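Narrative of activities, Objective 1.

The group set out to show that a structural description can be obtained from nothing but a protein's sequence at a throughput compatible with the screening campaign. Below is one input-output pair from the validation batch, recorded exactly as produced.
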Amino acid sequence: MCQPDGVSLDLSGEMTNRQYTIVGLGELLWDLFPAGKQLGGAPANFAYITNLLGDTGFPASRIGNDSLGNEAIERLRHLGLSSEFVQQDEDHPTGTVRVDLDPAGQPKFEILEPVAWDFLEWSESWRNLAAQADAVCFGSLAQRSPASRATVMSFLAATRADAVRVFDVNLRQNFYSKAVIEQSMNLATIVKLNHEELPKIMHLFEMKNDEPQDSARRLLSAFDLKLVCVTRGTGGSLLVSTEECSQHPGFKVKVADTVGAGDAFTAALVNGYVRGEALAEINENANRVGAWIASQSGGMPTPVHRGLQSALRAIG
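Output recorded for this entry:
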């Protein structure tokens, strides 16, 4: 039986001084909110929080050679993110997503196509990045086109055997298929999905879906995974491995919007996992980071002047 955990957040960073190379692979785009645009896309949000947590996060994506693309490069630099692995496309525009928020800050997305990140190109520089990566996070959305899917698969195949491959399930609009989900899960070390996606995935593979931890264990076994993570919005999260199970109730914050909160959770999850932390500690830290993002606007907010660690200590 999976029991709730109550663990204090350790922000000391004393477990290891090593900096890990961690890649967010996929879409880089502008989220078009009613109040204005903000740079986003799950892989970019993930890479940004990875950097804030002390590792080296690289977004690997593709933008148009247009004004929005140039602005994206400038924004990445302002945020302290490298644009070295952000390709520029002469024929397709920088990606945009129309975002509408309900009164609770929950987003509804309209993702436009085709755009530059539908044409990710396999290159020698990306091959070298894949070989250096300690972890890579990839999703289903960036695989909606055959070209980008082939590049994502090539990137994963070029990673080291010991690299952590995180499949972040994103069932957006109709931009996924059983074939994409199945191949991605078979290549993953960790699968992360939310409580609404879990029953859809179980149905997709004609697997029994009852208690979330039981469903997670079925996925662990079926796809030879090391860890399954189920996020539950304001209800916290569930982490299940073959040896451990951890539940966390989440943190209550005043929500600005939830855009990027799941990506921040994933970044903190990977930060702890590569360091060999216990699931309870990983779960606590990831929920705290995700809650901080939910209390801010957009997926890449600038930490308060006291720094990220002070901001995180204020959550809870």
